[in-house]
Amino acid sequence: MNSFFSKFQQVIDYKSSFSTNFVASLFFFSGFVSLLYQVIWMRYLALFFGSDVFSAAISLSAFMGGLSLGSYIAKKIVDRIKNHLLYYGIIEIAIGLYAFFFNDFLFSFKPFLKDIYQEYYLTTPSLYQGFRIFTAALVLIFPTALMGATLPLIVKGFVKTEFELGKYAGFFYSINTVGALAGTLLSAFFLLPTFGLFLTTKIGVVLNILIGVSAIIAIKSFTLDGLSNRKEESTQQQKDSLYQYEEGSSRMALLAIFFSGLAALALEVILTRVLTLSFSTTVYSFPIMLSCFLFGIFFGSYIVSRTIDSRRNVVEYFGIIEVLIAFSVMLVGLLSYLVPSIFGKFLWFIIGLFQNSFSISSVVSKFIVSGLLITFPAILFGATFPIAVKICTPNAEAAGYGTGRVYAANTAGSIFGSLLAGFILIPIFGSRISFIIISGIFLTVGVYLLFAQNCKYSSSKARQTAVNLGVATFAIGICIFFLPRQTVMNYNLQTTTQPELIYHGEGTAHSIDIVRGQSKKIIMMVDGNIEADTSDVQRRHFILKGHLPIMLAPTPDEVAVVGLGLGITLAASEKNPKSKSISLIELNPQMVDAHQYIKNVTDGILEKQKISLRIDDGRNFFSMTDQKFDIITADPIHPRISGVGFLFTKEYYQDIKSRLRKGGIICQWMPMYRISKKSFDVAFRTFSEVFENSSFWYVRGHGLFVASLDEFKIYYPKITKQMNSPIVANDLSSIDIHNEKDFLAHMLMGPKQIKAYLDSLQDTTINTDNNAYLEYKTPAEFLKKTKDIVEGLLPWAGIDPHIIQNISEENRVEFIDVWEKRKKRIIPELAESLS
């Protein structure tokens, strides 16, 4: 280890100069802040555009497109300017100042986006998507282009001889990458959870300005154009060993680095999808995997930068590495098949070592598994950059030109790679076959470099090595192709026996599986996580959630249901004769496709006349539409899943409130499992902050926040009348609700009790878009139990006498008796087995 760090220090001290160390430090923080902004801006854009897959693709493509454009423009001008450190400082300050106003600038387009959404979302969706592309490009192009220009600018400032082209390109690329690695980890695990989006942005702005000011002040001490009066002549020995630039090989390398970037980003997307099936898609899973990619890229670039300038056979070297990447990708595809069967056992083993600390254990386990799979191919990815710069740069005077064109090509390839993986490879071929295709791209690039122009750039030994690796890659590919289909569940659910598969779909955003489990129950999984099943325990809250708001609302004509799942809640809402029309807002098209295979579960609910389907993000819909509803039933998944926390924030509830008519009812599902009492209280206070006239209903392990825009009242004769409906009575009796007293006994707290309970809590925060409290806290609370929350609520449970109106004294006494008996059963019920 000491040897490694000593060698690394030698790299930092290329000329043992303070100037190199100083600029490298600035460039480290430049990479750190750039990644910080990427994370922040992607979250802002998700809030602005919605969380659908097109939104994510548009935002990422615009960001990377700006980087590519910036480096492309830089290649044309950096070789002609002087005092590169001054320009670098100005760029960093400009990025920081822009970041400070980014959010205001972005949301100034909201009125225009809303008008276009209402006019064209259903009639001409291409116009709506086009405006989103235009907006993303407009707000991201300036700062990301500046970011993309910094690498060629810095490299040009340092390179004085041909013998330093690969050295400095690889060195500063690795420094910037390790800064991005630090930004990835600190933003996910400390800055955003601690400070939120606003303050973290300000931290980034301060860092940018400090970087820029430091660079400008340093001009008085040195410039990058004459560092330490270095000699520009290389020794004859160096000249003899130098690679000789050729335009033909340069074009080949540029094409190769484009396709290498394409395949590398496609692999990142596919590996992320594969691993999250076992890891669970929490807000921490992707940063862990990304950090492994970035570490590999940093290390590979660092290693190669030390020796690349002393090589003659650089094109051959590039080709061998590409073939080796092809082999490693195929091997990773094969090994990833083993992850579901071993990750869960490994995690629980680590939990035992860390004395039941789930948060630490899950992070450590994910790092180890991700590192083992990702790091080696990522090291090879990183190695390709300084090699390509060496091949594509004519001479030292064109160092900025060569670096810029390679960075632009590689980043442009990455854009196409992310789109290729998300919209073509995974949906059409699936993750397993996608590994074979990506490996084939790398193998093709390697063969192209080694065998092009009558093998001009390679030796017979290198070609034979490539053939051997190619045969081994092909053999592994055959094994992957014939592997049996595997139904993957998150680590806590994976079993050695495979359930009966009813439906499997890998879409652009999620993987959907419907299986038949034990006791013949139907289970729906999203990205390996069970989101719904037909067990009696699950059906209880699904069916109650469908009927409850309709039975409370004065005029339950127009209903909005957010989230399809297995369709049990939607079916209950549709069965109730009081509902006239139901708008279903579902984000995932694959969820809709899956229902073609389970029509027997909900009697073909999507074909019912009352139902109108809209594929959209629920939050985006409520913030964009002017349509109003009598009832909104919000059925999100657990807030520990990345991105779902936005459906539990104050701002989301405010959007919902604005879409309710007078007397309207909101019914929001709230999990009471795998979440701490503190996080539950945060969710409770957040909901009640927006909806003052709220109540809390309880079904084993599940809570329902139910509120009215008007004073919360329950009209007993109305409930009785609806219970007399055969359709409603049959549906509710299937979950042990046989009369109006059983129904009302599920209300654990009224407005008065909720106020008293929340007043008893000290310093309970509000879950907002800014702090995303639930999204960052709940992933670590996987082992928390429902009992802790229930025991905290029960002392405050009660019913206000005036809430239930027009009820006879006899019925009131009977109801209170039923309610008290149910309250006493709540804790013992938790000890009973689930069925």
TrEMBL record:
UniProt-listed InterPro entries: MFS_trans_sf, SAM-dependent_MTases_sf, Spermi_synthase
GO biological process, one term: spermidine biosynthetic process
GO molecular function, one term: spermidine synthase activity
Pfam families for the chain: Spermine_synth
Keyword Membrane: yes
Keyword set, alphabetical order: Membrane, Transmembrane, Transmembrane helix
GO CC, any one term: cytosol
Sequence intervals crossing the membrane: 21-41, 53-73, 85-102, 133-159, 171-191, 203-222, 252-271, 283-305, 317-343, 363-385, 406-429, 435-453, 465-483
Matching NCBIfam families: MFS_SpdSyn
Record HAMAP family: Spermidine_synth
Record-given protein name: PABS domain-containing protein
Organism listed in the record: marine metagenome
